[in-house]
């Protein structure tokens, strides 16, 4: 009963979220590939485990792109996991405004970096209680009924995104 990731992204884009020119986000294969949101190639080896089990190097530019995409996403997911372990408030939807939630996320990142800079370790999160005040937990409403258009509205962006991804991947391959 919850909105798909692509619909949540579309809602954010419709309400002012934008990606700075020349920048992009890495996304998984569940999203459309566009110039602002780079997804892996479908039907091509992607997961690091698959690459390792094959005991071979990437055979073409698509495999190389997917390998590096997976490595970067792995690093990103690892740091998000560390932040959630250190700051449990990041694990749940809260009763705070979106602007306040952004402030909380940034503050957690700053605090994390401060702790690391001053030789802090991960013992504190291991000893911290995992319970979160039940009053801070909210249900996220289903927003799918608000969107009758589908991801197909991105068709032109997909073509441009595919060209951009191919250009990046072929550049990586040429330097490989």
Instruction: Please tally the β strands and state the result.
Output: 2
Radius of gyration: 19 Å
Instruction: Describe the largest sheet.
Output: 2 strands, parallel
Low-pLDDT residue intervals, each spanning 5 or more residues: 140-151
- Order of strands, main sheet, comes to 1-2
Q: Per DSSP, what share of the residues sits in E-state strands of 2 or more residues?
A: under 5%
Structural class: mainly alpha
- What gap, in angstroms, lies between the N and C termini? 44 Å
Average pLDDT, all residues: 79
How many separate structural domains? 1
Helix content: 40-55%
Q: SSE order in H/E notation?
A: HEEHHHHH
Quaternary organisation of the protein chains: single chain
Morphology call? globular
> What is the tally of helical segments?
6
Tell me about this structure:
Its main location: nucleus. This is DDE Tnp4 domain-containing protein. Pfam families: DDE_Tnp_4 (PF13359). GO terms for molecular function: hydrolase activity; metal ion binding; nuclease activity. By secondary structure, the chain is mainly α. Helices cover 51% and strands 2% of the residues. A two-stranded parallel sheet has the order 1-2. The radius of gyration is 19 Å and the shape is globular. Residues 140-151 have low confidence and may be disordered.
